[in-house]
């Protein structure tokens, strides 16, 4: 149908988990992330987000707001933000001050994506929060408190975010269930679904978001984003080889282990059993792996079925040059220059 969204007119953005590679350090990861962001800016990606994770040996994005400032300082025009800040881990005032500072330093370029999960295990969540009472239940109230700090100050307001108040910082709600989808709809905020690792409720959440949406000063109509994995290479065979690093990373999640990202292997047969393979494949349902022609066809099918306004792509690839190439292929596909 003519009203179907096309890859060429759909915004494409990058989610960087800042993976730490086996044999490398966090400093190497930060260097690679800056280089990727600079290429992403040149290639025309819409935004570059970083995700808050803690106590994970293979992910270096724990101090998310600091990294956002680092990436924004190393680029000029691309939007940089959080995908997301896990709000239960932080006082809303602190988040308002941090992002108020970022927006003041890099005006018109900062996004604030908010999640309600801990971004870690329960023991580490305890270390972050000191207690877990009402860990996620207060999320709507905390979102509203945070928004109040970023709104223009009111007469007699005793607690203010300086800098922060009165700044036009876009707030997104992120989620892997229908909870944040409905809340984003009721508040008239943009919504991003974490289908890159939790695909089950994608279509349900998108429907809940669109059905519950109330126009606001922020947004007049729903704006939905979906996270996906993309591993693109010049051939299907090469892409499938590169994807084994992604599989091993998610095998760590299944097993509850925390290892650095491993280089690709020729076969996964001796790495997992059948139940683990099934679990990983279920988590990675929305993963697009292959040559330009394969990626183009599968992404269009994804757009046809979801009708999302934007896709957020993460590419867990061990070799930095291959990771850059994957995003370059995606950028070229959007421009219609490949396949």
Automatic annotation (TrEMBL):
<dbReference type="InterPro" id="IPR036661">
    <property type="entry name" value="Luciferase-like_sf"/>
</dbReference>
<feature type="domain" description="Luciferase-like">
    <location>
        <begin position="25"/>
        <end position="301"/>
    </location>
</feature>
<dbReference type="InterPro" id="IPR011251">
    <property type="entry name" value="Luciferase-like_dom"/>
</dbReference>
<protein>
    <recommendedName>
        <fullName>Luciferase-like monooxygenase</fullName>
    </recommendedName>
</protein>
<dbReference type="InterPro" id="IPR050766">
    <property type="entry name" value="Bact_Lucif_Oxidored"/>
</dbReference>
<comment type="similarity">
    <text>To bacterial alkanal monooxygenase alpha and beta chains.</text>
</comment>
<dbReference type="GO" id="GO:0005829">
    <property type="term" value="C:cytosol"/>
</dbReference>
<dbReference type="InterPro" id="IPR019949">
    <property type="entry name" value="CmoO-like"/>
</dbReference>
<dbReference type="GO" id="GO:0016705">
    <property type="term" value="F:oxidoreductase activity, acting on paired donors, with incorporation or reduction of molecular oxygen"/>
</dbReference>
<dbReference type="Pfam" id="PF00296">
    <property type="entry name" value="Bac_luciferase"/>
</dbReference>
